Amino acid sequence: MTVVGSARPVKHSLTLRGHRTSVSLEPEFWDEFRRIAKARDQTLNGLAIEIDEARGDVGLASAIRVFVLNTLKDHSA
After folding, report:
1. Alpha-carbon distance 51 to 67, whole Å?
2. Cβ contacts of residue 56 below 8 Å, gap of 6+?
């Protein structure tokens, strides 16, 4: 069994509706999040705003991870 995601989370700043926020994600999640944004012809900040608006009580980093996971699952089915 290969251990995936063994790297420590990396913090990056995002701007959501004019407000800066920091999000910590593992490098693999940042890579996929960027790939998904590019495939959707969106900026990273634009996609983060969409996720932020739909996340409810969940933290932004967790919401991004779940979004990335669900997107990958949808494309593998």
Report:
1. 8
2. none
